[in-house]
Amino acid sequence: MISKKFYLFVFLSILLLLFLFKKNMSPRIVVLISGNGSNLQAIIDAINSKTLNGQIVLVVSNKDSAYGLTRATQAEIPTLIFPLKPYKDLGKTRIEYDIDLAKKIKEYNPNLIVLAGWMHILSEEFLNLFKDINIINLHPALPNQFDGADSIKRAYEAFKKGEITKTGVMVHKVIPDVDKGEPLLIEEVSIFETDSLNDLETRIHTVEHRLIVQCVKKILDELNH
Ligand code: GRF
């Protein structure tokens, strides 16, 4: 006679298989970072709380010192350190670097690539290898304002000179030009007379953490339907 324990075992096994199948089927995200990885963390947290129906299959950093790598390891996400320097030392080009990086990422079969603090421009050669998926970048400024590095500091200084009254955050599609490409989400951020640079940075990062999750959700929802 088959015992109740056996039925329970079969039932739990089916649940486990369904869970693993669903996890394997959820959209695959690769995140590229260069530093702290607080935006990576926002995505990890949103996946863990089921706000996002996706999985991060790889975190790539061009710097081995990036704290985001620790965050990824803590979340049991595979990591890849892929620095440019060895390429430069061998006299290889940026395009060669980008193509090798693209090949490594392709092995993980992503449905979405998120640049979250990635400090390299991606060349056309890289982007051409991912024509059928979204590649998005998070930038702490409004479109066409303060492209490139130190955007928050430059916005703060412009505010102090009376040149601007507000700044913002955007998530945009990636093209082979710094912080350009069609904006997908934009949010304005106020600057106040009493703000220190640190105050503004904190306010902007808070918006970034929300906006990057919102944009990833928008893309994943489209993929899931
Ligand atoms: C963010 O401000 C992002 O907009 C910019 O680089 C910073 C990365 O922060 N491109 P973190 O590494 O996600 O904490």
TrEMBL record:
Keyword terms, alphabetized: Membrane, Purine biosynthesis, Transferase, Transmembrane, Transmembrane helix
EC number of the protein: 2.1.2.2
Gene3D superfamilies: Formyl transferase, N-terminal domain (3.40.50.170)
GO molecular function, one term: phosphoribosylglycinamide formyltransferase activity
Enzyme class: transferase
Signal peptide (from-to): none
Pathway it works in: Purine metabolism; IMP biosynthesis via de novo pathway; N(2)-formyl-N(1)-(5-phospho-D-ribosyl)glycinamide from N(1)-(5-phospho-D-ribosyl)glycinamide (10-formyl THF route): step 1/1
Domain spans labelled Formyl transferase N-terminal: 28-215
Transmembrane segments: 6-21
GO biological process: 'de novo' IMP biosynthetic process
Family: Belongs to the GART family.
CDD domains the record matches: FMT_core_GART
Record protein name field: Phosphoribosylglycinamide formyltransferase
Any one Gene Ontology cellular component term annotated for this protein: cytoplasm
The organism's taxonomic lineage, starting at the top: Eukaryota, Fungi, Fungi incertae sedis, Mucoromycota, Glomeromycotina
Catalytic activity entry: N(1)-(5-phospho-beta-D-ribosyl)glycinamide + (6R)-10-formyltetrahydrofolate = N(2)-formyl-N(1)-(5-phospho-beta-D-ribosyl)glycinamide + (6S)-5,6,7,8-tetrahydrofolate + H(+)
